[in-house]
Predict the 3D structure of the following.
Amino acid sequence: MKQKIMLLPVIIIMLLALSACMSVGDSAEISAIIDSAAYRIEPVEERRILKLGVAAGPYGDMFMETILPFLAPKGYTVELVLYDDFIQPNIALSNYEVDLNMFQHYRYLNSFKFEHDLDLSAIAEIPTVSMGVFSSRYRTLEDINENAVVAIPDDATNLARALRVLEAAGVVTINPQIDKSRATVEDLSRNQKNLRFTLMPANQLVSELSQVDVAVINGNFAFAGGLNIAGALYNEVLLEGYVNVIAVRTEDLARQFVQDILDVIHSNDFRNAIIDPNSGFSGFQRPQYFAG
């Protein structure tokens, strides 16, 4: 035991001597090796198999027919995940169940992500089928009777949008003193035909159309439900913020798949695929970059 105790000073002296012989560069190198071992960052594996969240409507078809053909040569495959409402696609994106979604306009995304504290971002606008005023009972807006029942979406963003569509159609007037993006039925300053409003989920409006006199329906649901878009009593002219977007998690903005999608979106190949009269999307309202 005494021998072990006596050896300790000798060992300490030898270690100090060894330390003194090391250069500053050696010390830094060892430190770097230790640090890299403890905090190793795995290389990012870029995604080539993407899951795209969509709601009922034309946007899954649009992606598969006008975007994927130009991504496929780079090794991408895409799986569509269909949701039956406007809530699940954003929740699924935030929960890593899908990699991107394509179903909503920017204002809805912005409102939803703040309401639910989700870190999502829009990366590009896409051609969009607009909201329309539909009826199985009337052929024109002028034909609408007094006290007619009008169904509109019950979520705040699309409710206000539907009222603005009816205002643009000359059917109602919204109080000019309020923020029209937040308008409710109570904010109407004029209701020329004393229309009676019923609120329901946007995805139910097509199926309930025969039960009401008029319905203001989001374009994607109208399209998916087989309604004749051109046969609407009135079709919305989309304002800024109401053109649909592709959304991703904010943390993924620098991912290669995002850049590759943007390259396609802003290409002549995509433009030509959209404006092709046989595409099914040629009548959609186009984002401003189409004019560039």
Residues 2-21 form the longest helix (20 residues). The radius of gyration is 29 Å. Residues 1-43 have pLDDT under 50 and may be disordered. Residues 102 and 246 are 5 Å apart (CA to CA).
